[in-house]
Structures are given as structure tokens and as C-alpha cells.
From TrEMBL:
This is Epithelial cell adhesion molecule. One of its GO terms (cellular component) is membrane. Residues 60-140 form the Thyroglobulin type-1 domain. Pfam families: EPCAM-Trop-2_C, Thyroglobulin_1. It comes from Poecilia reticulata. The chain crosses the membrane at residues 267-292. Keywords: Disulfide bond, Membrane, Signal, Transmembrane, Transmembrane helix. Residues 1-20 form the signal peptide. Gene3D superfamilies: Thyroglobulin type-1.
Length: 309
């Protein structure tokens, strides 16, 4: 009996070693890796028949992640929360929530997405809808690149004062160490102590195609809102100097290299700001026109009066 237990333990230990050699994937918790030692074969199931090989040293593309998540949902696992919208110039917010995307073999989104229905729309490189919904003949001539995301975070209450400079350093570190992004992509970090709001702008040069900002933002959104996509489930926190900050809310704005083509009546929160500005200008314009006209009319009637005399 003792011998049997020892043997069982030995087998168990051996399995453990095999497991630690290849079993899991650093950048994606749903992935299984096969093989006794690196190089391992790591595959993410995108649907019943598509095991997608992935590189566990890198972030997995958002398109693959969404597809895998839809598959898991169909199988009855895991869900994603929807996020709401709030005005900000020219930015779009993902108000639609998750869909089952079509991905290119390299993991990029196809420009046209239909969620397996007859209703289709155009997305940006972050997979967020940037056109009205149409039928399956809708033309999305190319995938428009998202070059900037604004993360709007609200942190939980803390006792000490939050230091803006420390916050910026912490955001840069997070980008570099956790997502393997160039920390210089953090363009600006703003802080509003009253609302406990942190705004982080992450931006790459227009035309740059090496950095996938949408994927990074998706990992970050999951890290802060639901649970990490990484194998390591430790909570991600930003440092406010003397204290770590836990997040209450996160809202992501996407800014594309070309303006979105969503029309007025289907406006999402993100575009209302633009329209409001335009409307104000129009109203001011009309008032100005009205005043000018009145002056002109007055002058006109004066001349008329003079002529009548
Ligand atoms: C896509 O389809 C799934 C189920 O078929 C649904 O739950 C989801 O809300 C749809 N998403 C969009 C953006 O239409
Ligand atoms: C899309 O483009 C094709 C060919 O360029 C055209 O035949 C079709 O009518 C267009 N569809 C829409 C909805 O504009």
C-alpha cells in the first residue's frame, strides 16, 4: 500500500514537471500547450474545429480572443461585461459588446463583420464598429487603423493624496512590463482628484502598423474590469505614489486614422460631443446671420424712406 502511494506520488510529481515544462501559456489563460519541453505547441480553440496556434510570449490578437470568448460562451463559460459611453471628441466607444468576429490568418480583424448574421458593419483595427449597420452587401473598403486609445478609469477611494507624476510612471511601467509595449506610447496621464478619474492617452504615430493598440487595450480592459486574460490572475493596480489604486470603472475610447462614418441618428455617446460642438457653431452662425440681416434690413428701410421723401 505504502509502495503504491509512493509510486502514485512519483507519477504525480513527474506529471507536474511535464506540466510546468509546457502545460500553460503566460499570455492566455484558456490555452493548453502540448509537449514535454519548449518549443511547445500552444493552441487557442476559436471554435469546434479551429485550434489556433499562438505564441505565448506575445499578446494574443483581440480578434482571436473575441472569437475564442464567443466559443466559450456557446459552451457555457465566461462572459464579458458591456461598457457604456460618454462624450469625447471624434472617439468611438464599444457600445455593441462582443460579437463573433471574422479574423485574418494573422489575427487582424476583417474590415467587415457580420456576427454570423445578415446584418453587417465596418470595424476599425480594434474590432470596434465605426459604420452604421447595413446588410451583407455593405462595403468596407479597408481596415481603418486605431492609432489612439483613451482609457478613462475611476479608482476606488484611498486615504492619501494621489501623485500625478507617480501615476504616470506607474502607467508607463505597466505598459512596458505587462503588455510589452514601448512606454513612450503613453502620451498623457491626467488626474482629477474630485472625481477620482484617471485619463490615460496611449497613442502611436499615424501610419505605424507594428503596434496593435486595440489588443493592448483589450488586455488592459480585462485586467481592470473582469479578470486578467493572462495566466497570472494577480490584480493589476496603478500606483498613486504611497498607495496602490484599485479601479472601479474603465471606459475605452478609440480614435481612428479616419473619422468614423456612423450617421447622426445612430450616434453613440462618443460622437455626441462632436455634434454638440457643431450644433453650437451652427446656432451662433445663425444668430450672427440674423443680426447682419436685421442691420441690412434697417439700412435698406432707411434708404427706402429717404427715397420716398
Ligand atoms: C452577436 O451574436 C450573439 C449571439 O448570436 C449575441 O449575443 C451578441 O449580442 C451579438 N453581438 C452583436 C454586436 O451584435
Ligand atoms: C458595394 O460595392 C459594389 C461594387 O463596388 C457595388 O456593386 C455594391 O452596390 C456596393 N454596395 C453598397 C451597399 O453600396
Amino acid at each position: 500500500m505504502k509502495g503504491f502511494i509512493l509510486l502514485a506520488l512519483a507519477v504525480f510529481a513527474a506529471l507536474q514537471t511535464v506540466d510546468s515544462a509546457c502545460g500553460s501559456c503566460k499570455t492566455m489563460k484558456w490555452v493548453d500547450c502540448q509537449g514535454a519541453a519548449p518549443p511547445c505547441t500552444c493552441q487557442l480553440p476559436l471554435d469546434e474545429n479551429t485550434p489556433q496556434p499562438i505564441d505565448c510570449e506575445k499578446l494574443v490578437s483581440k480578434c482571436f480572443l473575441m472569437k475564442a470568448e464567443m466559443f466559450r460562451r456557446r459552451m457555457g463559460n465566461d462572459v464579458r461585461l458591456n461598457i457604456g459611453g460618454k462624450p469625447h471628441e471624434d472617439a468611438i466607444v464599444d457600445n455593441d459588446g462582443i460579437y463573433d468576429p471574422e479574423c485574418e490568418t494573422n489575427g487582424k480583424f476583417k474590415a467587415k463583420q457580420c456576427n454570423k448574421t445578415e446584418e453587417c458593419w465596418c470595424v476599425n483595427s480594434a474590432g470596434v464598429r465605426r459604420s452604421d449597420k447595413g446588410d451583407k452587401n455593405i462595403n468596407c473598403s479597408k481596415l481603418v487603423e486605431t492609432f489612439m486609445v483613451r482609457l478613462e478609469l475611476k479608482h476606488k477611494e484611498v486615504n492619501s493624496k494621489v501623485d500625478e507624476a507617480a501615476l504616470k510612471t506607474s502607467a508607463k511601467n505597466l505598459l512596458q512590463t505587462r503588455y510589452q509595449f514601448d512606454s513612450n506610447l503613453v502620451k498623457e496621464v491626467q488626474y482629477d482628484p474630485d472625481g477620482r478619474y484617471i485619463v490615460i492617452d496611449i497613442e502611436k504615430p499615424k501610419g505605424e502598423r507594428a503596434t496593435d493598440i486595440g489588443t493592448m487595450a483589450y488586455y488592459m480592459e480585462k485586467d481592470l474590469k473582469v479578470s486578467p486574460l493572462f495566466l497570472d490572475q494577480a490584480k493589476v493596480q496603478l500606483s498613486g505614489g504611497s498607495q496602490n489604486l484599485e479601479m472601479d470603472k474603465i471606459l475605452v475610447y478609440y480614435v481612428d486614422e479616419e473619422r468614423p462614418t456612423i450617421t447622426m441618428q445612430h450616434l453613440t455617446g462618443g460622437i455626441i460631443a462632436v455634434i454638440v460642438v457643431v450644433v453650437l457653431v451652427v446656432v451662433f452662425g445663425l444668430v450672427a446671420l440674423f443680426l447682419v440681416n436685421r442691420k441690412r434690413q434697417q439700412r435698406y428701410s432707411k434708404t427706402q424712406q429717404r427715397e420716398q421723401m
